[in-house]
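[stage:ingest] chain + small molecule (iron/sulfur cluster)
[stage:ingest] validated
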Amino acid sequence: MAVIINDTCINCGACIDECPVEAIVDEDDNPTDEEIYYVYADKCVECVGHHDEPACATACPTEGCITWDAIGESPEHRDDITDEQRSNKEPVVE
Ligand code: SF4
Ligand code: SF4
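[stage:predict] done
[stage:export] C-alpha cells:
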C-alpha cells in the first residue's frame, strides 16, 4: 500500500483529479467492491516529485479519511514517514 482511503470516504470526488499518477479510482472501479474511492498501491508514489505532501489528502474534505499505509510497490515513497506512522495508519493531513 502507500496511502489508503478508509471507509469514512464520502465519494465526493475531490481527490481523483489531484493525483499526478492516476492511482485513484472511484467506487464503481474499486476492486474491493467497497462503495468508496480506492488507491492503487502499485501506482501511488505518495506525490514524491510532484507535491510537498500527498495531493489527494490535501484535497479531501473528510478529516482522517486518507492515511499512511505500508510502502507500496511503486517506485517512490516518502522516506520521512516512519513505520509507526504507517502501521498506525495515521492521517496524512492532521
Ligand atoms: S498520495 Fe499522491 S500519488 Fe498517491 S494517490 Fe494520493 S495524489 Fe496519488
Ligand atoms: S476526497 Fe476524500 S472523501 Fe472525497 S472521494 Fe476522495 S477520499 Fe473520498
